[in-house]
Structures are given as structure tokens and as C-alpha cells.
Amino acid sequence: MSFTGFPEAALDFYDDLEIDNSKVFWEAHRDVYQSSVAAPMVALTDELADEFGPAKVFRPYRDVRFSKDKTPYKTHQGAFVAVGPATGYYVQISAPGVRVAAGFYHADADTLAAIRRAIDDDLHGAELEKIVGTLERKGWEVGGDRVKTSPRGWSADHPRIDLLRYRSLTVSRDYGFDEVIHSPALVDRVRKDWRQTRPLVDWLVRRVG
């Protein structure tokens, strides 16, 4: 199946799901989810797999076991191409439209320590600083989970303390309701943007090993 774009019905589906996140609604609109959301997402990521690798298209069900929020379904559909531990490329559709991202989304203690040692290194740390700065200038939003103060063992006056504070580090870009999301041209748009983020992903993979 070739990717032809996400239909308007995909956005409408998530608009309605945010209002009525129930099994009754889901069962009544399961066919819309399959045809307008899931199938196009698989087609999109399949067309990108030749360059970036196969994607995991996430299940639509929330894990509510340890959450106060018991709504059963995710209000977005994401797909992730992993090239390292919790590191890679991401694309998502939801009520606000399509969003792309890249970076690392979680790190255990040893992995995070390795990343911070690389940031501390003058050569490798300066390289990451340059990569992130370049992406910011190209319009990417830098985000991730970060500690409010200095991480334990690091001085507040470290020249790259802002980067050291991150426990996850991502860059993202929203397409919103741009007409491209409804057309086959979305494949090339995502491909171009993921290529822009490749230096960040490659840095993370090299530094963590």
C-alpha cells in the first residue's frame, strides 16, 4: 500500500476521541481508526524504511495500571524508528495534526552517565552543542525531561550545564494542519526533516555505543 496522505477523517477521529474516550466510542469507530489512522501510518513508515529502518507503530491502548487517568485510548498515533536504546526518529498524528521528532526519550542510569560524560568532554560536548544550535536555528524545538538544578556531581558553572541537565533530549517540529499531511508529499517532508536530525541521532548512538 502506497502512502497517499492522512485523510481529514483521521483528525476528526482524534477530535472526537478527546471528547469521548470510551470503549463504546472506540468500537463504533474502529474501522475509521484502522483505515484513516493505522493503515496510513504503516504506509508512511514503510516508505521511509529504506533509509531509516523499520518503524514500530505503537498500539492505541494506554497502560492505565499505575495512572490516575483511566481513559483507555491514546489521543495520538505514534511510530518510532529505533537506532539505539530509546533513541531514533518519531512521527505522530493527533487532533492538532502531524508532528515529527528525533532524539533519545529515556536513558537508564548507566546510559545517562555515558551521555553526560560525552557532554563534559570538550570535543564531543562542543560537537553536540553545535548540532543542537544548528537545529534550533533551522526551527526545531529542543525539549526533553531535565532536572531543574545541576545534576549531582556537576558544577552549575559548567560551560554546557544546560545540556547536562537533560535526562532525555529531543528535537521536534509540528506540521499542524498543513495541506502536505493529506498528500503523498508528506513522505518527502518527513524524510527531509529526519535527515536534518540525523547528526543528533548519530551523536547519541556513537557516544552511548
UniProtKB/TrEMBL annotation:
Domain of life: Bacteria
InterPro entries in the cross-refs: CHP02453, UCP028451
Pfam (any one): DUF2461
Name this protein carries in UniProt: TIGR02453 family protein
